[in-house]
Amino acid sequence: MSWTATGAAPKPATPAWMKTIRPQHVLVLLFLIAYPLVASPFWTVQIGAQSLFLGVIALSLMFLAGYGGMVSLSQMTVAGVAGYMVAVFGTNSTHPLFGWPLWAAVPIAIVIATAFATLIGIISVRTAGIYTIMITLAIGVAAFYFAQQNYEIFNGHSGFAGLPGPVGFGMDWRAPMPFYYMSLAVAALSYLAVVYLARSTFGLTLQAIRDNARRMNALGFNVNLHRVVAHAVAGLIAAIGGLLYVWMNGRVSPGTIDIGPVIDILVIAVIGGLRHPIGPFIGAVLFVLMKNFAIDLISPERFNTLIGLIFLAIVLVSPDGLLGLWRLASDRLKAAGLNGSTGRQWGNNSWRNNNGK
């Protein structure tokens, strides 16, 4: 360590990641940690945990669309594949096949779901825009009908019930509080991973490909390879979120990967905002609240109409979702404060000039 001229040791440099931490980040983290301590089991699981793992699945879509410019409608399908695989290789009460312990079934389920997402990437990366959307939607629909019609492996339209949750360290992780904290840990790690990747060389290259793929190809970058890897990363995130999804419900069926849940993930991501990894979680909170309390506003059958109207209203006002509305409101408040202070200053100067001072 070198010493300064005054004899004092220089202060160590602050790590770059610490410079990005704001007081509001700490407050949000403290709130999320303390939330199950004051919330009922219903609010802990049905609202809190469900918002977190739906946000994780929507985060995988945000990673593809926000950083890669690829809107995929198969992320819920990938999550469902992970759920199906943990039921096929693990234990269930309706159609047991392999009966592996959970510690062996979970890794193989994640690997197969990630490989499936990689295959989707290989198929879809050669297209763009509406064609990518239609290809991924077609894959999702095909997976739904395949699961519904296959009885030997996927048990047809009934699917699998009685899926056990993880048990370890002396506790049942499907109990309300442990399940919430497990979901929070997965959501936090997924969020930090996406933030890190966005700032890495791979993430910056992926964003450059999003902005101008032809130029990046001319510079010698393998555009399709980067896009396929992005699908694999997004598939890994969606697969982990899918495991939490089936553990909360204790079952997986073709309804898990039906067109409705597939579109729900798109709605969650777009409502929250595709420009920042926190957007999907904001959208998930709004979506889950509306889904659980729509019966108090309208009939449950009209929920899709309600969420569709909210979706249209937010997108028409702000294409960047709720995050865009927040930034727009913040900018207007700052502009109003600046204009107000400028106006007061101009008024004071004018008063002084008119009075000869």
Question: Layout of SSEs?
Answer:
Layout: H1 16-19, H2 23-38, H3 41-68, H4 75-89, H5 102-124, H6 130-149, E1 160-161, E2 167-168, E3 171-172, H7 176-199, H8 201-211, H9 213-218, H10 223-249, E4 251-252, H11 259-272, H12 279-297, H13 303-317, H14 321-354
Antiparallel strand pairs: 1-4, 2-3
Helix pairs in contact: 2-7, 3-7, 3-10, 3-11, 3-12, 4-5, 4-10, 5-10, 7-8, 7-10, 8-10, 11-12
Helix content: over 70%
CATH class of the largest domain: Mainly Alpha
**Sheet/helix structural class:** mainly alpha
Count of domain modules: 2
Radius of gyration: 24 Å
Annotation field: number of helices: 14
Dominant shape: globular
Low-pLDDT stretches are 340-357
Q: Helix and strand string, N-terminal first? A: HHHHHHEEEHHHHEHHHH
Say how many strands there are: 4
Strand arrangement within the widest β-sheet reads: 1-4
Protein name: Branched-chain amino acid ABC transporter permease
InterPro entries: ABC_transp_permease, LivM-like
Transmembrane segments: 26-45, 51-69, 76-94, 100-123, 130-147, 179-198, 219-248, 305-326
Subcellular location: Cell membrane
